[in-house]
Here is the input.
Amino acid sequence: MSAPRLILVLGDQLTPDLSALRAGDRARDIVVMAEVRDEATYVRHHKKKIAFIFASMRKFAAALEADGWRVAYGRYDDEATARSICGELMRRHQAFDADGVIATECGEWRLRAALEACPLTIETKPDDRFITPPGFFRQWAEGRKALRMEYFYREMRKATGLLMDGDEPAGKRWNYDSENRKAAERDLLMPAPMRHAPDAVTEEVLDLVERAFADHPGALRPFWFATDARGAKRAAAKFMREALPRFGDYQDAMLTDDRFLYHSVLSLYINVGFLDPLDLCRQAEAEYREGRAPLNAVEGYVRQILGWREFVRGIYDREGPDYTARNHLKAKRPLPDFYWTAETDMACMKAAIGETLEEAYAHHIQRLMVTGTFALLAGIDPHAVHEWYLEIYADAYEWVEAPNVIGMSQFADGGVVGSKPYAASGAYIDRMSDYCGHCAYDVKRRHGEGACPFNPLYWDFLDRNRKRLGDNPRLAQIYRNWDRMDADRRGEVLASAKDVLKAIDAKARI
Ligand code: FAD
Ligand code: DLZ
Ligand code: SF4
Here is the structure.
């Protein structure tokens, strides 16, 4: 019998038909999985995120064993477990006198580099758990002056046939975004994501995380995430049935008393491999075809997965490992402490950060237009913003988080992901939420005592970045509005912004 090979399965590779597993042989090879210090602490991940990953890994390992695999599993609290993935592979390699390693390409440049430097022979298989075939994005991007998600998305619709009627998009339009901007009102029939009571394996992990990661941010309990594919599939079925039909209408809405609205809360399950993205798109399309969900909802949902998720993955791969160091707007203010405590008088920030600390979740518009926009306007160092998002969300891995943060939200890539920064004053939040109605600040005041901080910061952002943004055609009208403003008024707005920034720098409560 030939020596076994090691099959590496990482914490976000919990898919039974992972390319590395497909390349292995149950009768010969050994699966290696490990809870290691380097992965658990390369940023201070939210406690719920670590618990979700460890519990999911343990249950996936048990499922592989039940399926006939031999699994060498390193537990975090076992002293013999190495500190890094490479260390663990080396330990197992020696113990089993193995003949090399088979791995599925990992998502993050950081770990790719660590495995390349690992002194073992590692055969790497592509990660084919995405809808885009290998090479498709690079080919599509080749020679284009600008990479815009909308055009990529249309190609993907054609390539997959999703929501296509022959060569035409269903309903004759590619994109129903303009219909998906309704402000929500709380209603008693609001759906909620499926909550899963922790089983014995999860309880054991929760105790471990409580002990070993006490200094990490976020609330550990109540813990309600699914920790296996079965639970994740049940959560997906509930979403399709209850929330998808209104997903489109209220996609951009925010409500103080409803943290999930009509969002799916499935990204954490997709990203570890419990749910297949194409399968979800097909399920959503079936809801439309069978008359249970309207086209604007289904197209909106499909666009997030088939469009945005695949697009950002392509961007991360194409832009390379230095992407997270980009800082086009040269922003360098440290991240304010209230991102870790939610102790702020701004009702929108308090809600978005508070929910994030409790749930390791906030929905897209909270991430983009509240915490993201505030950091952008206040000139926070984008790398610090990036690390916060990577730590604090249960669905965060650099390949998906960085293009959203460095690119879409902070414009630190100078326009690779988006054609203009998502800068907005308080009026946007007022339109899309009920936050301003109970805020200590006045959203209608543009400057001075009690003015919503987003308002002066918005103009200050545009004014101080004029050299880099002034010739952006999508901002031309806004700059014209600024220039038309009375000079005294402009002075007052800028002075007011300075006061807010000074308060941030002095760590005063705002
Ligand atoms: P829904 O609103 O129900 O959307 C459906 C699905 O579409 C999601 O489950 C997700 O898989 C996909 N999706 C939607 N928007 C995006 C997007 N912009 N990029 C990639 N996939 C998308 N998503 C992550 O998975 N991990 C992250 O670390 C992450 N960081 C983000 C940081 C910022 C600043 C912003 C603006 C967005 C970020 N996103 C991230 C994208 C998006 O906010 C989340 O995918 C979404 O909020 C997850 O919640 P949901 O499952 O309820 O999504
Ligand atoms: C995020 C994460 C955490 C917290 N812990 C582990 C771990 O202990 N073992 C592991 O194999 N994977 C973990 N992960 C996921 C990895 O960080 C992820 O696979 C890489 O970032 C590559 O995308
Ligand atoms: Fe946020 Fe300004 Fe509205 Fe307060 S007034 S909730 S700070 S947008």
Summary: The chain has three domains: 6-125, 136-217+229-319, 338-505. Residues 263-267, 270-271, 301, 304-305, 308-309, 312, 363-364, 367-368, 372, 389, 393, 395-396, 400-401, 404-405, 408-409 surround flavin-adenine dinucleotide (ligand 1) (CB under 6 Å).
